[in-house]
Amino acid sequence: MGDKKLTSLGRPRTGMKRNGPLQARRAQAEKARPHAYEARLLTRLRELASPERAAQEKRYQKFRWGHWGVSLPNMDRAIREHLAGADEDELLALCERLWREPVWDLKIVAGRVLGGKAVAPDERVWRFIFERMPELDGWAVEDNLQSAASRCLLADPRRLDVVETWVENPHLWTRRASLVFTLPWTKPGRDPERTLGWAARLLRDREWFIQKAIGWQLRSLSKTSPERVRAFLRAHEGAVKGVALREATKYLK
Question: Which domain holds residue 132?
Answer without folding.
Answer: 30-155
